[in-house]
Amino acid sequence: MYATSLGADGAELCPLQPWQAEEFLAHVDRGREFIGRFNGLPDAVSDLAAARTFLTAYAEKEAADAGLIRGIRLDGTLVGAVILRRMDVPQGTAEAGCWLEPDAVGRGLVTRAARLLIDWAIRERGIHRVEWWVSAGNAPSIAVARRLGMHKEAVLRESYPHRGERHDEEIWAVLAWEWTGRAQAAGA
Q1: How far apart are CA 12 and CA 5, in angstroms?
Q2: 3-state SS class at 168
Q3: Nearest 10 degrees: Cα torsion 169, 95, 188, 105
Q4: How far apart are CA 96 and CA 133, in angstroms?
Q5: β-pairing verdict for 129-135 and 93-100
Q6: pLDDT reported for residue 188
Q7: pLDDT digits over 38-86, tens only?
Q8: Distance CA 39, CA 33 (A)
Q9: 111 burial class (0-12, 13-18, 19+ CB within 10 angstroms)?
Q10: Element (H, E) at 176
Q11: How far, in Å, CA of 63 to CA of 52, rounded?
């Protein structure tokens, strides 16, 4: 219900709610090792209660206009998500993120979903700056940032502790005038 098409391949972007925690946990379990290479989600969502807590936190963020989560479905199956991890409407800033199961990689799903999410944040919520924080070793996520027209602004050396190691993080960002200007140039 309330799904937005991501293209002719049947992929959709749709809300994820706490009542879907069982499905969400099954999705995380299918991609646990793959997703967990650079993302702490599988460590945080270890069981049904944790899945419900995670989705409830995002439902509360959305109710407070401070973030949101949207599932990526392919042929009706939840295969990933895009998030506004944080959103500060008065400040005009947001941080977008994503993850995907390994069987769904290579189809452009995250790029298409993130494009819709960022466009909504900028056009509907008045966000001026959308950031993309990514482990420096996560080449696919960096490629998404590039495809979204983001600019690499910083490297935070060894700032992200993950599974016993410290990782460098890159910060990529796009500004509203860049985003809308590019869309106008493309005739959108």
Answers
A1: 5
A2: strand
A3: 60
A4: 8
A5: parallel
A6: 56
A7: 988 999 999 999 999 999 999 999 999 999 999 999 999 999 999 999 9
A8: 10
A9: middle
A10: helix 176-185
A11: 16
pTM beyond 0.85, yes or no: yes
**Residues present in the chain in total:** 188
Contact 14, 73 (CB under 8 A): yes
DSSP 8-state assignment for residue 14:
E
As a whole number of angstroms, the longest Cα–Cα distance in the chain is 47
Report which residue type is found at 175. L
Secondary-structure breakdown of the chain: helix, strand, coil percentages, each rounded to the nearest 5:
40, 35, 25
pLDDT tens-digit map of 98-123 = 999 999 999 999 999 999 999 999 99
Are the C-beta atoms of residues 113 and 13 closer than 8 Å to each other?
A: yes
Does residue 33 register a pLDDT over 60?
yes
CB-CB neighbours of 7 under 10 Å: 11
Residue 185 has pLDDT above 80, yes or no: no
Question: What residues does 31 pair with on adjacent strands?
Answer: none
Calpha distance 24→51 (Å, rounded)? 7
Predicted confidence band of residue 164 (pLDDT cuts 50, 70, 90): confident
